[in-house]
Amino acid sequence: MLRRDLELLLARAERRIALLERCRPLNYSEERARLLAGLRRGEAREPCFSYAPSAAVQKLCVGLGAVAAGAEQGGAWGVLYAQRAYELHLEAAIAAAVGTPQVRKHALRRFGASRGVEVDAARELAERWARLPALEEATLQRYSSADAEQPLSLLCAMRRAVGEARIGFRVLTNPDLTSVAATGEGVIVVRAGIQLTERAAKRVAMHEVHGHALPRHHARSEEIGLFRVGSAGGPDEEEGRALLIEDRLDLMDAERKRQLGLRHLAARSVHAGATWVETTRVLQSVGSRLCECVDIASRAHRGGGLGREVVYLESYLRLRSAFAVDPSAEGPLKRGRVSVRCGKLLATLGRPPEVLPTVRAA
Questions:
Q1: Under 8 Å between Cβ of 300 and 267
Q2: The model scores a pTM over 0.85
Q3: pLDDT tens-digit profile of 54-63?
Q4: Is 141 exposed, middle or buried (0-12, 13-18, 19+ CB in 10 A)?
């Protein structure tokens, strides 16, 4: 198969999988209100999230497995494409099982299988950060996240950041987003209906634009499609680098660290088999407020048990160490969605072949 055709196949597969979108509950706003009311009454109940149908992704999952098996026969270049195909194969398996107990099993293989010193270090850091004092709600002015008339809102901050970066990304709003914001191909989505400080809005805008949107923008001009479709581990380390960007801009304050710690603990509880209610108890045990418990537990359990949040702190620590030793290692991550390991390999492999071993279409 022509390499460019394989790159198009992987890019199309990721768009069809749309993992985070498929794991977004359709009824999050209503269910959040019910869950929060229950916790306030001391009646913790499991959520009843509903999701869009995803049965069509099953065929894609099988096809990506075949793509990975074929591409890995193509030497060092083939292995790089095969590893990304296998990563997408796991994500397709998650998407096909959304809303079922199988999600947790597949998600553990995709997001919970990390190895290395940063795994234990991230857990220890999360425990420490989660116990930082919570910011008093009334101490700082907050603004509605999607207020197009308020210059200090997240929506306006995001649009300014996109304009200053000179990238053609649309900024949209969605009240059912389980994260504060999310970046996709050519689009950044802001969660409507929440209140943020001016500082928090700036942090989120820098995270999304400089950590996620700009590498996608630069990847469009790269000859090697891995920068666009991602290498294995590339999207995860993208999250770690986005945190480093926050840190460098002095935007990672105590409240942000506390939130990251809580999310990590919640995701770890998901991978350990906790129910939604059990995850809220983990969060409450370290002093989390009830509204935070609902949002963070729901984010960690989205789709049926995604637990993707573990990659944030692990990647942050791994990249911080890697860039301290070799600052040039960051270069490839600025150019697209590749990992540090892949970036180093690309520097040694020369030009990629035009043809890779034949694979079945996904």
A1: yes
A2: yes
A3: 777 888 888 8
A4: exposed
